[in-house]
Amino acid sequence: MSVKLYGTAGSPNVRGAMLGLAEKGVEYEFVSLMPPAWKTPEHLARNPFGKVPVLEHDGFEVFETQAILRYLDQTFPGPALQPTNAREGAWAHPGAALGSSEWSRQPSSASRPTWNGSTRPCPWHVAALRRLSL
To answer: Which spans in 1-134 are helix H?
Structure first.
């Protein structure tokens, strides 16, 4: 069983895929790709958007971190990476999106969420986080 992960080690999205592979105990080969290698014809054949990460498993390729994590969860034994309860699962994906969207764009996001350049937290994110109990 051959597993390769294409990406840039410093990328948060690639690190998410790496964490999923580690949690599942999957041995894999990391293929380091730095820009501009993302836009080569060879990589565009893996991911037409020219981004990373891309997971290759026995000739099957999947891109985008959330799709990779779902694939790992359904393909490999080990701890579940996502909730199996429908109601918990419905809130898992918005929670992951919140963690990787608005707040990760600002250097101060770890200590103080920002919204549209202000120091006020985004009201929609606050409401969602309260619902998620984060």
So the answer is: 12-24, 41-46, 65-75, 86-100, 123-132
Q: Which two tokens stand for residue 41?
A: 């014809």
Expressed in angstroms, the distance from the first to the final Cα of the chain is 37
Residue 112 per-residue DSSP state: S
61 and 18 inside one domain: yes
Cα distance between residue 81 and residue 91, in whole Å: 14
Check pLDDT > 80 for residue 112: no
User: 87 near 93, Cβ under 8 Å?
Assistant: no
Dist CA 128 CA 131 (whole Å):
5
The phi, psi pair for 71, rounded to 5°, reads -60, -45
pTM of the model: 0.68
CATH number of the domain encompassing residue 25: 3.40.30.10
